[in-house]
Design goal:
The complex is a heterodimer of chains A (93) and B (197).
Chain A (H helix, E strand, L loop, with lengths): L1 H10 L3 H18 L5 H13 L1 H20 L8 H13 L1
Chain B lengths: L10 H12 L3 H12 L2 H17 L10 H19 L9 H4 L5 H4 L8 H22 L3 H12 L4 H8 L3 H25 L5
Helix pairs in contact in B: 2-3, 2-4, 3-4, 4-9, 7-10, 8-10, 9-10
The chains are: A mainly alpha (93), B mainly alpha (197).
Chain lengths: 93, 197
């Protein structure tokens, strides 16, 4: 059912809808990174309420960002580093 | 006339401000260096060099401006220069070895009666972390860089543009391509983890 819908939609796109979807898809990163204006965000959210495929793209993109920020381990700074930076600076003076 | 750039600071002033404004960035800066070089020694050298340069040019650094972005920019430029010098080095993907550490907070509670679900969750977390690291490390360095700056360090597009010395439009398109590339690499894995329907 859903794929049929997508197919039909791709073949004979409602012009307005296509524009909205591509607009929203271009806004994805902006919204996820908190760089969208409030107007853009409003448009984005309104569209998401009526478009499953854009809703899903948004979920995926959000998930990806979350995976990076939440699961990538941070390396531990060697304790000696700050000391050797200070020492080097005094040396070169 | 408000505060001028290039005014001479006394050594004491300089040292105090260096400690207060620049050294606190050590942790993110080292992590950035490590993600760029994928080597602990190289990251060490790069960070030291960055701080030496920053100290040398400290008179030009305006108080109150973004110290973190400034240091990241210096480091990124040093990396590009170093990278050129070292010619084409094959990417080191030894991440699994060097990443065998835990956040200090996570280490606590090992003596406790960890339930099986907790243990399972923890190993899954590690697994995801390793997978993400390997996917990220496999990206071209320009792609890796924008993802680190944006998703790990939380820089704005504008700050990223300043750090990388490229227009904001380029930041956006590069980030978009980087994410697509990363998504591709992680997709298969994500499916097995049940993230994808």
């Amino acid at each position: 059912m859903e794929s049929k819908f997508t197919e039909a939609y791709q073949k004979a796109p409602d012009e307005g809808y296509e524009t909205d979807c591509s607009k929203v898809s271009e806004m994805l990163d902006l919204v996820i990174d908190g760089e969208a204006t409030s107007e853009e965000e409003k448009f984005f959210n309104t569209h998401l309420e009526e478009c499953v495929s854009c809703f899903e793209s948004h979920q995926k993109q959000k998930l990806l960002k979350g995976i990076i920020s939440g699961h990538l381990k941070r390396v531990i700074v060697p304790e000696s580093l700050a000391l050797s930076i200070r020492a080097k600076i005094q040396e070169t003076l | 006339m408000s505060e001028q750039t290039g005014k001479q600071l006394s050594k004491e002033e300089k040292d105090a401000r260096f400690e207060a404004e620049l050294l606190p960035v050590l942790d993110p800066l080292y992590n950035f260096a490590y993600r760029l070089t994928l080597d602990e020694d190289d990251a060490n050298d790069l960070v030291q060099e960055t701080y030496l340069k920053a100290y040398r040019f400290f008179d030009y650094f305006e108080q109150g401006t973004n110290a973190k972005a400034w240091l990241f920019r210096i480091l990124k430029n040093s990396f590009i220069n170093e990278f050129r010098k070292k010619s084409k080095q094959p990417a080191k993907v030894d991440y699994s070895e060097v990443e065998g550490y835990y956040n200090s907070e996570d280490v606590e509670g090992e003596g406790g009666v960890a339930s099986t679900t907790d243990m399972r969750t923890e190993s899954v977390q590690d697994l995801i972390g390793d997978e993400v690291a390997s996917a990220l490390n496999a990206l071209p360095v320009d792609f890796r860089t924008v993802i680190i700056l944006c998703d790990l360090e939380g820089f704005t597009y504008e700050e990223m543009a300043k750090i990388l010395d490229i227009p904001i439009g380029t930041v956006r398109s590069r980030l978009h391509r980087a994410r697509n590339s990363l998504k591709e690499k992680l997709e298969k894995y994500a499916k097995t983890m049940g993230y994808n329907s």
